[in-house]
Amino acid sequence: QVQLVESGGGLVQPGGSLRLSCVVSGSIFSTRTMHWYRQAPGKQRELVAGITSNGNTNYADSVKDRFTISRDNAKNTVYLQMNSLKPEDTAVYYCHYWFVRDYWGQGTQVTVSS
Hints:
about 0% helix, 4-stranded antiparallel beta sheet, about 110 residues
């Protein structure tokens, strides 16, 4: 059974940093393109960043130069390092991949507030 489990969210002040983790089990993690999405209250879920199996990355314009996605295939884990956080980054962050269908984690709340 496939599971994606996120962790690392929390409350942080503007300008602060957080690192999110997503551990994937029950799938051949190393071959999957992984994504981080986020959904703020009253808004649609949006793609934040993606990383291919060979390490190529892409980012939403709103997070470029602040967020970094990475992966550790030995640990079946994808990370999202978030720096210079802004109040508008407040959202539930989800780990995702697609293989035949969409797979999602349960989400982790990130709140940026003073």
